[in-house]
Design brief:
The protein is an all-alpha fold. The protein has 2 domains: 80 residues, no CATH class; 52 residues, no CATH class. 65% of the residues lie in helices and 0% in strands. Helix 1 packs across helix 3 and helix 4 packs parallel to helix 6.
Length: 148
């Protein structure tokens, strides 16, 4: 089931915009999504113009794009549908992952004999590096030895 289809069911469950028949929490339980997801998609539905709803129903634009484009005035929505901005997800738009990688590089440099900070113990630094490697999706070498 597409997000458009789930959202239309949420709209039906909610009823008219002015007089809702079900709360967001109740709708979230019925459709199996979070209250936040339901709220964001109902808001997008309410703000979306005909062109945006049509493009959404045809799955011509991503869910992220729908939520972003719905905030625009209807005239701007049509232009944004023709030329949607790429999603901010992916390797180039992940500041948290980049920060983790920078910290890993610094810890590697620290452990390889670069000038050391007297406040950081080498065992603590190695543990922090292992934790960052785990978060980044690579198994720390010492843990790999333990598990094999």
């Amino acid at each position: 089931m597409t997000t458009y289809e789930v959202t239309t069911r949420c709209v039906i469950l909610r009823g008219e915009t002015g007089t809702p028949t079900m709360s967001g929490a109740a709708i979230a339980k019925v459709v199996g999504r979070s209250k936040t997801w339901v709220s964001r998609h109902l808001t997008a539905w309410d703000l979306a113009g005909v062109a945006l709803r049509y493009a959404w129903s045809e799955s011509r634009i991503s869910d992220d794009a729908v939520l972003r484009i719905a905030r625009l005035p209807h005239a701007a929505q049509a232009a944004a549908i023709r030329n949607p901005t790429p999603s901010r997800r992916g390797a180039r738009h992940r500041p948290q992952a980049d920060a983790i990688k920078r910290a890993m590089t610094e810890l590697d440099r620290y452990l390889s004999g670069a000038p050391r900070d007297a406040l950081v113990e080498p065992t603590y630094a190695q543990g922090a590096l292992d934790a960052l490697r785990w978060v980044a999706g690579s198994m720390p070498p010492r843990l790999a030895d333990i598990l094999t």
